[in-house]
Specification:
This protein has 196 residues and is of the alpha/beta class. The protein has helices at 26-29, 36-41, 47-60, 77-85, 101-115, 120-128, 131-144, 152-178, 182-194, and strands spanning 8-10, 19-25, 33-34, 66-69, 72-75, 90-96. Strands 1-2-6-4-5-3 form a six-stranded mixed β-sheet. β1 and β2 (19-25) form a beta hairpin. The radius of gyration is 21 Å and the shape is globular.
């Protein structure tokens, strides 16, 4: 914990190993970094939502801590921008430790799905950002189980079924994450891929 302010360490409910809350002076906070991968995970606030947040912060200060990992903002990009724009010197920061960037990205996505009023399309769009993580996990599980040890011919015969099965399994996991249906996930993916 940094020296300025009050720090409280505790185990996180979300799987992060270590959390500390610190109230830091603005000059200490100016070195916070923004990782575009993290920022892009989050749906943008509408102009009206941003204005309401700005009014609230100017009037009452930052009520929810800006979440950081290794001095990189995980959550609170808008709060941080508003504080900088209005020269707000004191705001809370919560430091969280993750095992990897993938773990941090997954936490960001789950956190957003759990707290915002989102349309099904927006929920699906966020969940689809998990696709690479899920594919990676599926590959790791297959490798941990020894991979597919069948002959080349057996692999070729089964490959179409495995590809379709993997897509269905991924869609099912994504739908579960989004709280929507597999069909809804598939339609959203088609819209995003084709832009229509």
């Amino acid at each position: 914990c940094r020296e300025v302010g009050k720090c409280v360490g505790r185990k996180s409910r979300n799987g992060a190993e270590n959390e500390q809350i610190s109230v830091l002076k603005g000059s200490d906070n100016l070195d916070l970094k923004i990782d575009e991968d993290y920022k892009q995970c989050l749906p943008e606030l509408s102009k009206e939502e941003y204005t309401e947040l700005e009014k609230s912060i100017v009037k009452d200060g930052v009520l929810n801590p800006i979440l950081v990992w290794n001095e990189v903002i995980i959550d609170g990009h808008n709060r941080y921008a508003i504080c900088k724009a209005h020269h707000i010197e004191n705001f809370p920061i919560k430091e969280i430790t993750f095992g990897s960037k993938d773990e941090a990205l997954e936490w960001i996505l789950k956190n957003q799905l759990g707290r915002r009023n989102l349309t099904d399309f927006q929920r699906n769009k966020i969940a689809l950002k998990y696709e690479a993580v899920i594919a990676k996990r599926m590959k790791e599980r297959q490798s941990a189980a020894g991979g597919d040890k069948r002959s080349v011919n057996a692999k070729n015969i089964a490959s179409d079924h495995l590809v379709n099965s993997d897509k269905t399994t991924k869609r099912a996991e994504l739908a579960k994450i989004a709280g929507t249906s597999q069909g809804s996930i598939q339609r959203t993916k088609l819209i995003l891929d084709k832009g229509t």
